[in-house]
Amino acid sequence: MTSTHTRSKLPIAGVAVAMVTALAACSSGSGSGSASSPGGDGGETTPAKPVPTIKISPVKGTAKVRPDKAVVVTADNGSLEEVVVESNGVPVEGEFDADRTKWTSKGPLKPSSKYTVSAKATGEGGPTEANSQFSTLKPKFPLAVADITPGVKGETVGVGMPIMVTFNQSVTDKASVEKALQVKAEKPVDGAWRWMSSKQVIYRPAKYWPAHQKVKFTANLAGVRGGKDMYGVKNSSATINIGAALISTVNVKTHMMYVKKDGKTVQTMKISAGKGDTREYTTTSGVHLTMERANPVTMISPGKKEGDPGYYKEVVNYAVRISNSGEYVHSAPWSVGSQGYANVSHGCVNASPAQAKWFYDNFHRGDVVKITGTSRILESWNGWGFWQMSFKEWEKGSALK
C-alpha cells in the first residue's frame, strides 16, 4: 500500500513541477522588455541617432562643368564643419549659410581644370565625411584681355588718362564681364565703364584723377561668361602711375597757351592755331588729351596728292598728338612771327622751337589740353576726346544699370 501511495503522488508532483515551470516561463516572457532596456528599469528601446548626410554638387565624376556654375555642399541631420574645394592646390572661396547646413562657392571656376571637394559634418549621430571630384569645360571661345592702355611698365600718365581695355573676343554678356573689372585708386573717385564696341571698354573717372597716386586695374576674367561658349581663361592686371596735374589751356582767339602743373603756371606760350578758312583747317575746341609724341613727324594733307590745291608735306619737330584728326602741339620755326598774333596753321597748335621742345619733354600721355575759341567742336570719339561727354552721359554706356 505504501508503494502504491508513493506512485500515486509522483504524477501529482510532476504536474506541480510542470505548472511552476509554465508559470516561470510566463513570468519570463512578460518581462522581456525590462530585461533588454538599459538598467533593467522597464523603458522602451532607444532608437539610434541618424548620421549626417552630405550632398555635393556637381556630383562626383561630372565632366565639362560650366565655370559659372556654383559648387554647393549641403548637410542633412547635422551641420558642416569644413568644406575644402581646390584645383592644383588653389582653394576656392565660399561661404556657409546661417546654420551651416549649406556651403556655396563664390565667384567662377577656372575652365579646363580639375577640382576636388572634401567636406566634414557632425551631428547627434556622430561625424561623417564626403569627397568628390569634377572637371570644368574647355571653352570654345577663350576670352582674355588683349591690351590694357596705359600698360607700359614704369610709365607715368596724366590726370585725364582713361583705362582702355581691349579683348580678344567680341563680348555679348557685357554685364558679366564688366562685373569682373576692378579699379582701385589710392585716392578714390567716382568712375564708370563705357563700352565703345563689343571688344573694347573704357573706364573714366567722373572728374580728373587726383594727382600723384597709383591706380590698380584688375580683370578677374577666369571663368567669367563672355557669351555663348565663351569663358575667360585668365586674369590680367596693371598698375597705373598718375603723375602731376599738367593742364594746358589754349585760347585760339588770343593766340596764347598756359600750362599749369598742380595748379601753378609753369609755362606761358605764344601759339598759332588753325587758320580756319575750311573745317579741315579749323582747330577743334574742347578737352583734348595728349596721346603720343614723335620727333620728327611728317605731316601730309589728308585726301590730297601732290599738285592738288592745298596739298602740303611738312616735317615738324617735337610733335605731341592731341586728336586723331591730325592735331598736334608742335614746333614751327617758320611761323614764329605769327605766334601770339595770328592763326596760320593747318589745324595744329604750334609754338616756338624752345617752348615746343619743353612741352614735348614734359608731357605725359593723358595730360589735359583745353582749347577754346573756335566753331569746330572736338568729337568724343576723336582720339581720346572722352572728356567731351558729361559723366552722366558717359555712364549710360555701362552694361550695369
Describe the protein's architecture and organization.
This protein is mainly beta and 401 residues long. The chain folds into three domains: 53-135, Immunoglobulin-like (Sandwich), CATH 2.60.40.3780; 141-243, Immunoglobulin-like (Sandwich); 246-383, L,D-transpeptidase catalytic domain-like (Beta Barrel). Helix content is 13%, strand content 37%. The chain has helices at residues 2-30, 32-36, 174-179, 353-362, 391-394, and strands spanning 53-57, 72-76, 79-87, 90-91, 94-96, 102-105, 114-123, 126-135, 141-143, 145-149, 156-157, 163-167, 181-185, 191-195, 200-205, 213-219, 225-227, 230-232, 236-242, 246-251, 256-261, 264-270, 286-289, 292-294, 297-300, 313-316, 319-321, 328-331, 349-351, 368-372. It has a five-stranded mixed β-sheet, with no helix packed on it. The chain has a four-stranded antiparallel β-sheet with strand order 1-2-6-5, with no helix packed on it. Strand 21 (256-261) and strand 22 (264-270) form a beta hairpin. The longest helix has 29 residues, at 2-30. It is elongated and about 115 Å long. Mean pLDDT is 89; it is low at 1-40.
Strand-residue proportion:
35-45%
Got a strand count?
30
CATH classification class of the largest domain: Mainly Beta
* C-alpha geometry: elongated
> Count the helices. How many?
5
CATH topology of the largest domain, anyone? L,D-transpeptidase catalytic domain-like
Going by CATH, the architecture of the largest domain would be Beta Barrel
- Summarize model confidence as the mean pLDDT: 89
Q: In angstroms, what separates the terminal alpha carbons?
A: 121 Å
Number of domains: 3
- Over the alpha carbons, how many angstroms does the gyration radius reach? 41 Å
Please state the structural category.
mainly beta
